């Protein structure tokens, strides 16, 4: 999967949870989009289920924008031998 495909899939996944279709890749989910802790946990759970990965808790605080989520997801996928093509 390419990084562009991953970004698009993650944006769609997040948009479905937060019910906001139009947001920028660097919008802060909490301060710009009003994402609460329950939505944030749902985002993490769906990413884990969709990509069959485990996101360690220490990453949660870093996952504030789509850009950050893409980077972390990509890093974990690569570490688990699920490479993302650039």
Automatic annotation (TrEMBL):
Does the keyword section mention Transcription regulation? no
- Domain (Carrier) spans 1-77
Question: Which keywords does this chain's UniProt record carry?
Answer: Phosphopantetheine, Phosphoprotein
Designated name of the protein: Carrier domain-containing protein
Name its species.
Dictyobacter formicarum
Lineage summary: Bacteria, Bacillati, Chloroflexota, Ktedonobacteria, Ktedonobacterales
């Amino acid at each position: 999967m390419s990084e562009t495909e991953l970004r698009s899939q993650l944006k769609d996944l997040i948009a479905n949870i937060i019910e906001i279709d139009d947001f920028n890749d660097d919008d802060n989910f909490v301060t710009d989009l009003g994402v609460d802790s329950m939505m944030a946990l749902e985002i993490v759970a769906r990413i884990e289920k969709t990509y069959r990965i485990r996101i360690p808790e220490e990453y949660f605080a870093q996952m504030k924008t789509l850009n950050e989520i893409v980077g972390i997801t990509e890093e974990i996928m690569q570490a688990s031998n699920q490479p993302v093509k650039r």
